[in-house]
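Good morning,

Both structures are done.
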Amino acid sequence: MLNKDAKPIGSVTPGGGSTDGLFHDLESVFIALPGANVLLSPDLVVEAISNDYYTATQAQKECLLGNHFLEALANSPATREVNAINNLQASLEQVLATGQPHEMERVSFDAPDPHQPGAFITHYWQIRHTPVLGTNGQVRYLIHSVINVTPKLQVEEQLRDSLRREQEALRGAEQIRHRLESLFRQAPVAICILDGPDLVYEFINPTYQQLAMGFQQLGKPFMGNFAEKEKHPLYRRIREVYETGQSYEERGLLIPLLREPDGRLENHYFNYIVQARYSVQNQVDGLLIFAFDVTDQIKSRKAAEASAHQLRLVTDALPVLVGYLDKEEKYRFANQAYKDWFLQNPEELLGRPVREVVGEKAYQTVKDKIIRALQGERLTFEAKMPYRDDFVKHIRVDYVPDIQEGKVAGFYTMVTDITSQVEARKALQESEQQAKSLAQELALANEGLQKINRQLSRTNVDLDNFIYTASHDLKAPILNIEGLIGLLRRQLSKENSWSELIQEIVHLVLESVQRFKHTIHHLTDITKLQKESLLEASQINLVDLIKDVQLDLYPDIQATQAQIRVEVVPEATLQFSEKNLRSIIYNLLSNALKYHAPDRAPRVRIDFSETTEFKVLTVQDNGLGFNLAQEHKLFTMFMRLHDHVEGAGIGLYMVKKIIDNAGGTIEVQSKVGEGSTFKVYFPKKAIHNP
């Protein structure tokens, strides 16, 4: 409803004075006022427009000034929203009716785009209508004020977008923090976060807590309970990272950890990384520690090193060349035997190509074999290797590929020197022809030897018969002499003619008779031994037989206080003539007692062992011993190396005779003043029954 009583600007007042001059002054002031304002008459005709309004709305002066405001706006191409005109009219009518200011809700109007002719930009306006009242209290003018709130709205929208992004970032950061914390907690490595200059535990994952052996560390300073921690190298390194911001890493650090509840220290090895944590001001405000428990790896490595050391010891002791070549044909391992061949320490060969080490000529000899080994083929071959002009070897070689995850990483080499065998084979081949030519001569010689052997056999038989006959025929005269001497002693005793001289002579004659009887007895034994060489063998328990011999020698054992140690398993047996085996054991044990050192009791050790071809009986004593230069006399008939001890010198002869007949042998080791060791070798497959 428009106010009909409003006076137009420039009319005459009741006092007769013109207001035109005043209006123009007021109009100039209005135009210059800050803010986008339009002065309207009560009938909504545009009376004046401020400069800021033109600037804000890009309106054309001729389209508004003097025209009906609402019609001008409705006709403007910038006004696209019909409701905006209606709402504007309602607000103006309300102010005219009430005489009170009214502020509309924010509305949008389009304004021409100064940068793109014909285009429009949507602006948001805050509109206020303020009445100018006359002296009668009626609305004389209306001031239409607009404030472009588009920048404010844009700022608010930007703030909202920024706040939304910030909230989304915070939510994302929180999600990341939760994920990291979950990851840290589930990580198989020990992780902790130290906060602030006091390095207080802010976060500890379960793995780190296990390393703490159950002690509660959260909220406490790092190494807080450790006396003089400032002097501890680990604390100093971690403190240095906090002060400098430079990360630190160490491998294989030994840290003794205290275990509850027994308080026992356990050695653990760690690889750990310490990194600085930065605040938003890019200042160090904490530390992150990642600790990897590598105790098992360290122990495994040490075990591997110990194993490698043992392998080195073993391979260095071998008389063969043991090495390892990688895919580039370079040495990665070489044992001590390489030094003797190539005049360099094995360490100096590592990393060098085999071609350079062995020489070009030798390398060309095995080049194709090396290629095949690196292709995964296992090889064994022999070759003649010209390493140097003055050093040529015949070798047997084994190449063993080292296959890891289906791929050849290298191969092991084992080189055996067979030069002597090759030369021996060559010499053997050269001698074969000579052997063939000698075969006929040997055949002829063998025929002669057989003839001679038959003659010797007859001679041996005749000799045995002679010895037997002589010993048998001499027994009767000796016994007669012994009887006559006895008769003479009795007769002289009756006649009291038993002078000391006669007594001594008779005594000497009787001793000579006894020695002669012993000699005849030994000759008889030798003859029996020759004739009994074909006695049937049987399975004899060795322990039982030794016990029987000990009983036979019991008086001598007691007299000498001998200690006899039998180290023979109860089930040990020999396939042999029992009588001859008893003779061997009896003579060896008897000699050990007979020839004992006068300053110590005899100690005799009897043991029994086996080789591939023989069963070996060993008798060792601590007796007088003898010079091995006299060994050739030891087994000779009637030969004695110690004259101060009674004996006929026939025992060892008989032992050797028995074992020779059985196809065995006897060995002796001795040292004067320390004792002797006799080893009797019984063949497992006898030539004939002993």
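Second structure follows.
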Amino acid sequence: FGGGAEDAVLTFARLLRPGPVWGRLGLRARVVPVFVFLWVALRMSVVSVIEVLRWAGLVLRDFSLGHAVPSPVPPILRVVVSGWLRELFTLGVTLDLYGGVPALYVNFVDYDVNAHALGPEHPAALRALRAVDASIGAIARVVARLRERDYDLYVISDHGHLASVPFRRVCGEASVVDLVVTAFGPDRQSRRAPEPPLAAREPLAPLRMPLWPFAPVWQRNLAYLEQRLRERNAVWVGGLCIVPAGPNVNVYLTHTPERVLGEEIEARYPGALTRLSTHPGIGYVLARSAAGPVCYYRGAVHRIPPPPGATGCPLFDRADRATVVLGLEDLLAMPSGGDVILYGHDTTVGCVSYLDERGSHAGPSPAELYPFVAAPAHLAFDFAAVRRPRDLYPLFARYQDQE
């Protein structure tokens, strides 16, 4: 994600490539980045070995006790994301600061990855957050040392995290794809023969995980694992394209590339949107009508924006209704948005994730909706007026004007 930067290695300016600041042909341009990389490699190799030994010890302990062994995925994520990448990012930015690179951007994803998998307040996620704080602190100390360079340091959080409940805890082994296909039913205006329900075509047997991770039974379980893994991808079935995406699901009607309004959806699939909105695993159902965007909540239909006063819908009965409405209007104006968008917020069990995650974002809850910007104290800018990301453009455009 280089963001259109002139030069990028992952998300920092350059680590192993010489530039005009360091000298294109000078010895320092070749040697310094190599030594930096070797130091990171040596340090993280030791950390990686420790993590592998720790996981192996847990495997042997649990296997000897007859318990299911821990998955190797969490330690791998810790080493790769919270280890190698973060250290490379931090030292890469530090190197570029000393080299005088005029503008740098780095994205730390450690906490986000752990919060999705384990929950936003899980000890491992909070440890990752503290590690990110340490990296930001290291960069801030370098900026303070280089006062003659007059760097401005910004720390920007683009969203928060909300604890979520996996959809399978609400519906057992049924997937959200099964739910959507069942709620829509056959297309009343299609001339094609109706397809059998997804569950009837692909039965899902109970999955019993083996104790030993290399046991032969894993091979027999792959057929059952495949369906669960496919939930992270788009599924085309019955004239629909269903895309689970964390706490939301985009549903596209595939008979036309054009946007499909609620009136046509109702004609093709009578009552489908109302049925979805009353399901215990779904909070809100968003769609577009000829009169404007609408929100279904527990069988009731609300216009966006709603009329003044109480609505009975927690999405609108909030002090920040104007901000929520603005975000919903932007979402439903996106050409890539689904013809129907499902949200797992404000269900009977809290926030539901359709990707089996314990932490979610991209929704309308206050915990997700409000990011923060830590900016230099001397900066004159009206952050209170910021409503969309593009409202920050004038702030950073100033630096281009100064060049």
